[in-house]
Amino acid sequence: MLLNRFCQALWFALPVIIGGLLHVGVIKLNWLPALARLPLDGGATFRGKRLLGDNKTVRGALVMIAATLSSAALLEHAAPSIARRLAVASFQVEHAAVWGFLLGAGYISGELPNSLIKRQFDIAPGRPARGRARLISWTVDQVDSVVGVFLLLTPVWRPDSVFVALTLGLSLVLHPLVAALMVALKLKSTVG
Questions:
Q1: How far apart are alpha carbons 168 and 35 in whole angstroms?
Q2: Residue 112 domain flag
Q3: pTM reported for the whole predicted model
Q4: What pLDDT is attached to residue 15?
Q5: What's residue 192's pLDDT?
Q6: Which residues pair with 45 in a beta bridge?
Q7: From 1, 22, 166, 183, which residue has the greatest number of CB atoms within 10 Å?
Q8: Which domain holds residue 151?
């Protein structure tokens, strides 16, 4: 039973993982450079500090959403029997592209409040807080997007507590692995 739930959590996360890896490729190849120069916050400030900073870009949001949407739809099309067996909701199978859109948009949306808080406390993008708050900051950096995904999926699906725990645990492992890949590709200076 627990192994099946773990496989469901991996299948649930797979479109986002693929979307994230595709986003890393877009950054590395510097595709859509004009969109990379457009910050999501439009340069707006609050209390004299940027809302989100230059690292949250229109390119990042659009690529992540489009890549996750496409990945969810392609996975459903390429492996329909696996999709039906591991889906957490009928909506995930019946409306794979919409599900993928919600995953991608939730992922991006979940990162924004954390970025806003970090900018207000002068914490550099991709860096945790210093001192006693470091562990909390690092943990929030790993799971903020998962919370965003769950919130955006609420109209079509509500996970149980076991699935939430599995997915958050998975995020604590996978998110740093993707960050390590970004460091290896020289897209980031630290894992976080």
A1: 31
A2: yes
A3: 0.93
A4: 98
A5: 65
A6: 50
A7: 166
A8: 2-184
